[in-house]
Amino acid sequence: MELIIKNANIVGTDGKLELKNIVVAGGVIQQIMDASEQAALEDAQVIDAQGKLVSAGFIDMHVHLREPGFEYKETIETGARSAAKGGFTTIACMPNTRPVTDNPETVKLVLDRAKEADLVHVLPYAAITKSELGRELTDFPALKESGAIGFTDDGVGVQSAQMMKDAMKWAAELGMPVIAHCEDNTLVEGAPVAEGEFARKHGLKGIPNESEAIHVGRDILLAEATGVHYHVCHVSTEQSIRLIRQAKEIGVKVTAEVCPHHLILSEEDIPGLDANWKMNPPLRSRRDVEACIKAVEDGTIDIIVTDHAPHSEEEKERGMQLAPFGIVGFETAFPLLYTKFVATGKWPLAQLIQRMTADPARVFGLAAGKLEPGAPADLTIVDLETERAVDPSTFASKGRNTPFTDWKLKGWPVATIVSGKVVWSE
User: Fold this and answer.
1) For residues 334-356, average pLDDT
2) How far is CA 190 from CA 206, 321, 322, 420, in A?
3) What is the pLDDT of residues 203-233, one digit of tens each?
4) Which of 89, 219, 236, 273 would give a disulfide with 281, using CB separation of 3.0 to 4.6 Å?
């Protein structure tokens, strides 16, 4: 497919917006030229961006597509469509499905369903332990061979230090990353929210910060010993950030991610016992939020992910104690971050885009994430000006579980292009 995107505002090397024409052929960016120049491609599809932002496609390295096993919550197709609507061109899905993605057959199933959907690039993670039970390691070489891009028991922490060390040794030998959900089960059982004022006010058991940080500290020491690339999922506490920062300073191969909700919301914002505000990690204190923001700014946290976690309305209506953890994130991520941080002048636009494109590509060794000749033509067109309210009824995801209903935001993606093909357009 040959494509020309005219009048595209791109972020230049100096961080300022520059009006350009982008020429795409064979699924690759061929040229980026001044908007005044004429692109010479006969029979090319032409899109006039009309001065809207054009970025490398967003990359989300932590998502839940629910298939196989929980198709009533989401399928690979509906999740991929939701991702495309949110401007994402590459997503990496977690293995806590049913069956768990702990064998080559299930990895192949995920890849086949993604190919059938033909929307965005879907990269599957495989489980560290069989059925994510923490008792026996999976067959890492076979899972790598089948197309898994890393190993994680996301949804549960690996409780045994010896099991995690063995996993890291094996992954390091294969040149693969270990991605960790950090949570000490002995400190969190039965708790739906963070330890703090909200939990006390409503008589709920609280999840303490140290439940996350204990595993982060343990795993950093194990990563140092084994030399593995260790990646920390959905960081949410000041203590975890302190440990990651120190580890990076001494050269441990550790990277980290954070979600928009942990940069924007604290436990003080929870309006009541509405389970659309229940996620894991939970919303923490304002101090933790500020620590997360600072860590994104100074690079301690490398990337921003959504942890897109759809559930049915019936499940979320069970209330704060009984409902499952998780919120959807694809379709609100960029508008939330743009409105909160860029439109207010706190962050340069270039920094936000980098944390959602070039940095995840760097951390996980992907070819995507660049807006330059020779790079894959995975592109997102964004309207930075139009303001509208978050309306879950319009989501392409099956999930409607968001705490951001009715928030007025700017920075909405209006078209998403994958390998030179328009896969979603407003």
Assistant:
1) 98
2) 9, 8, 9, 47
3) 999 999 999 999 999 999 999 999 999 999 9
4) 236
Annotated active-site residue 307? The verdict is yes
CA dist., res. 259 & res. 248, Å (int): 20
| Burial category of 99 from C-beta neighbours within 10 Å (exposed 0-12, middle 13-18, buried 19 and up) | middle
Buried b (16+ CB within 10 A) or exposed e, 366-393: bebbbbeeebbbbbbbbbbeeeeebebe
State mean pLDDT over 60-64: 98
**Whole-prediction pTM:** 0.97
Cα–Cα distance between 40 and 38 in angstroms, integer? 6
CB-based contact 22:415 (threshold 8 Å): no
- Residue 36 contacts residue 279 (beta carbons within 8 Å): no
For residue 177, which phi and psi values (nearest 5 degrees)? Answer: -85, 155
Rounded percentage of the chain residues whose pLDDT exceeds 70: 99
Catalytic residue among 307, 359, 378, 383: 307
Cβ atoms of 134 and 100 within 8 Å: the answer is no
State how far the alpha carbon of 222 is from the alpha carbons of 17, 147, 225, 247, 250, in Å: 43, 26, 5, 11, 14
What is the mean predicted confidence (pLDDT) over 383-408?
98
Name the phi and psi angles at 38, rounded to 5: -95, 125
CA distance 172 to 226: 7
| Amino acid present at 353 | I
Measure the CA–CA gap between 229 and 252, rounded to whole angstroms: 8
